[in-house]
Amino acid sequence: EALEIVTGKRQLDASAILDYFHPLIVWLEKENNKTKEHIGWVRGE
């Protein structure tokens, strides 16, 4: 209820922060591909 009172919405939207960091995300993806970095968990056997 407090969120709705302050923002007028019942849900949050992260699109603005994703737009802001998009250039960084693109750069990081390119750099990780260049260095063959694996991002995430390694599956156990």
UniProtKB/TrEMBL annotation:
Name of the molecule in the record: Uncharacterized protein
Signal peptide: none
GO MF entry, a single one: metallopeptidase activity
Keyword Disulfide bond included in the entry's annotation: yes
Family designation: Belongs to the peptidase M2 family.
UniProt keyword annotations, A-Z: Disulfide bond, Glycoprotein, Signal
GO annotation (BP), single: proteolysis
